[in-house]
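Q: How do we represent a protein-ligand complex in a form that can be generated token by token?
A: Start from the inputs.
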Amino acid sequence: MRQQGRFITFEGGEGSGKSTQAKRLAERLKLRGHEVIQTREPGGSPGAEAIRHLLLSGIAKPLGPEAETFMFAAARDDHVSTTIRPALARGAWVVCDRFIDSTRVYQGSLGNVDQRLIRALERLVVGETRPDVTFILDVPPEIGLSRVATRGNAVDRFEAEHLEYHRLLRESYRDLAEQEPERCVLVDGSPGADAIAVRIWMQVSERFLRPAGAIATPRASL
Ligand code: TYD
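Then emit the structure tokens for the protein with thymidine-5'-diphosphate bound:
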């Protein structure tokens, strides 16, 4: 019998290491013979990648956080319908770097966009296509931002925000992990990438890859 694919998302502040971990998890699943779609937001489909440019360059910033929220939702709509849903429907695993929680935190908690609007857009755009598990990489913003600085790339619209913004971002992600302990796993992002990858793999295999009959004991925090 064909095994069912799962939808796994990675979240966290700037330089938290989530993109590295998303890539490593996708590679590990592929090694086990699964079909894996590794994707990201904003982006992940041609239409959404076009909108990504408007959002990250800062062109859309003067329109305000509400307009940015609509643009993230438009990008997500294209991404979900052309990339994520078809992949899950054929049994593939989807590993996505950022998803609905980024909107809840960046536009909602930090941008003060009404959470009722954000949840309404989620229902409309995402519907039942919710992540099975979300790993939230947690690092102090000083560490995250210094990692971003050593990459040597130009900073984007959100990376350029002040330190206090990044502190609040971290707190909002931690609150979110507390609010949804079944889905969200808070992962300490300070250790080396190898140690973090092992912890994430343990969670994925405990939750989804155990032989039938084995008792899974998901832990909300690592
Ligand atoms: P990206 O270059 O993908 O970097 P990273 O994910 O490593 O930070 O930047 C995406 C940026 O977009 C990031 O600063 C968070 C922001 N973002 C939102 O504000 N809302 C959203 O819904 C999403 C998906 C991303």
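The chain has a mean pLDDT of 93. The pocket of thymidine-5'-diphosphate is lined by residues 14, 19, 40-42, 56, 72, 97-98, 102-103, 106-107, 156, 158 (CB under 6 Å).
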